[in-house]
Design goal:
By secondary structure, this protein is of the alpha/beta class. The chain contains ten helices and 14 strands. α1 crosses α9. The model has no long low-confidence stretch (mean pLDDT 97).
C-alpha cells in the first residue's frame, strides 16, 4: 500500500502540532479526501484550508474513527485517554503525541531513527516523546557508538509553541504591549514571557526538578533501552515562537575525539552538523524552524570533564519534535506491515 492511500485522522487539527501535521501531509501531496481533521465539538463543521482544498472539522468522538487507517493524536492527554483505545478497537493504528502513554511499559515510545524496531510490539498505540527528548536521544544514540555514556547534563531553551497556540499568541501580544509602553497581561505562563526567560516548564516535583525535566530522564532511558543512563536537566521557556534548543554536556566512559563526534553525528539520519563558529555558523532556533533535521554545532571538548563533550542543538519542535516524528512512525509501521497490534499479527 502507498502511504497516500491511507485514510489519516489528525486529532487536534486546530492546534499547533496538529496544524503542522496537516502541513507535512500537504508537503507529501496526501490527498484531502484521505484526511479527516478532528477537533473539539466547538470547532466541528469549521472549514480549514488544505492546499487548494478545504477540510471540514469533525467532532472527535468514537464514531468518527470508522474507516480510518491511522490516527495522529495531538489534542492532549484527556482526549487520548478517552478515545485512543476506542479507535484501536475499530482497527485504527494510533500514534499519540501526548504524555499519557509514554511510560506505559506495554506501549512503545519511538523515535524511528533510534528504536524503530520497537514498533513491532505495539498493542495498537505507539507513543511519541516529548519535543525536547526527541533530538536529545538522537544525539545520544549517535554518540554512544563511540563510547558508553556515563552522564549527561542538559539545559533546554524551549519555544512557546511547545505550550500551544495560546502561548504563542500571548508572547506576541505581550511583546506588542511592552514595545508600546504598556503593562503586559499574563495568562498562560505565571510570569511575563516577552523579553524574559522562565526556568519553569511544567509542574515542580518534590525533588526540585520539574515534570518536563523528569520526562527527559525517563523517556531517554526507555527509548535508548538504558535504565542506567544518568541525565540532569534544567528546562527553560524562552521568548521564541518555534524551535527548541539544548545545551548538552556528555561525559563518556572513555575519551572521544572531536572529529569522530562530528563524523558520527554527520552520518546519523536526521542530524545536520552546523559547526563553523569562526564563521558564525551554528544552530539557532530561527535556522531550525521549518526544516526536518536536528541541527548540531558548538561541538567541543568539555574542559570540566576529562572524557566530556559539549554541544548545542536546535530543532523545530512542531516538526521533528512532534508531527514529523509521528508521520515517520507511520512510515516505519507501513514499511514493516505493522499497523495491526502485535497480538493480531502473531495469530494471522
Amino acid at each position: 500500500m502507498n502511504s497516500n492511500e491511507l485514510h489519516i485522522a489528525v486529532v487536534g487539527a486546530t492546534g499547533a502540532a496538529g496544524g503542522t501535521a496537516l502541513e507535512l501531509l500537504l508537503e507529501r501531496n496526501h490527498p484531502a479526501k484521505n484526511i479527516t481533521a478532528m477537533a473539539s465539538e466547538k470547532s466541528a463543521d469549521r472549514k480549514i484550508q488544505y492546499g487548494d482544498s478545504e477540510l471540514t472539522i469533525v467532532h472527535a468522538r468514537a464514531e468518527a474513527f470508522e474507516g480510518i487507517d491511522v490516527a495522529l493524536f495531538a489534542a492532549g492527554g484527556y482526549v487520548s485517554r478517552r478515545l485512543a483505545h476506542k479507535a484501536v478497537e475499530q482497527g485504527v493504528f494510533v500514534i499519540d503525541k501526548g504524555s499519557i502513554f509514554r511510560m506505559d511499559p506495554s506501549i512503545p515510545l519511538v523515535v524511528p531513527e533510534v528504536n524503530g524496531d520497537d514498533i513491532d510490539w505495539h498493542p495498537g498505540i505507539v507513543s511519541t516523546p516529548n519535543c525536547t527528548s526527541t533530538p536529545f536521544v538522537m544525539v545520544l544514540d549517535a554518540l554512544r557508538a563511540l563510547s558508553p555514556i556515563k552522564a549527561v547534563t542538559v539545559a533546554t531553551y524551549q519555544s512557546v509553541t511547545g505550550t500551544g497556540v495560546a502561548a504563542q499568541e500571548e508572547l506576541l501580544e505581550q511583546t506588542r504591549t511592552v514595545l508600546a509602553g504598556g503593562e503586559p497581561v499574563t495568562d498562560v505562563y505565571p510570569h511575563e514571557i516577552a523579553f524574559n526567560v522562565l526556568p519553569h516548564v511544567d509542574d515542580f516535583l518534590e525533588n526540585g526538578y520539574t515534570k518536563e525535566e523528569q520526562k527527559m530522564l525517563n523517556e531517554s532511558r526507555k527509548i535508548l533501552h538504558d535504565e542506567n543512563l544518568a541525565v540532569s536537566a534544567t528546562c527553560v521557556r524562552v521568548p521564541v515562537e518555534i524551535s527548541h534548543s539544548e545545551s548538552v554536556q556528555i561525559e563518556f566512559e572513555t575519551s572521544v575525539g572531536i572529529n569522530d563526534v562530528k563524523r558520527v553525528l554527520g552520518d546519523y539520519p536526521g542530524v545536520l552538523v552546523v559547526d563553523e563558529p569562526s564563521r558564525n555558523e551554528y544552530p539557532t532556533p530561527l535556522s531550525a524552524a521549518g526544516i526536518d533535521d536536528v541541527l548540531v554545532g558548538r561541538i567541543r571538548k568539555d574542559i570540566a570533564h576529562e572524557n566530556g563533550i559539549a554541544l548545542w542543538l536546535s530543532c523545530d519542535n512542531l516538526r521533528k519534535g512532534a508531527a514529523l516524528n509521528a508521520l515517520q512512525i507511520m512510515d516505519e509501521a507501513l514499511r514493516r506491515n505493522a499497523f495491526k497490534p502485535a497480538a493480531e499479527r502473531m495469530t494471522t
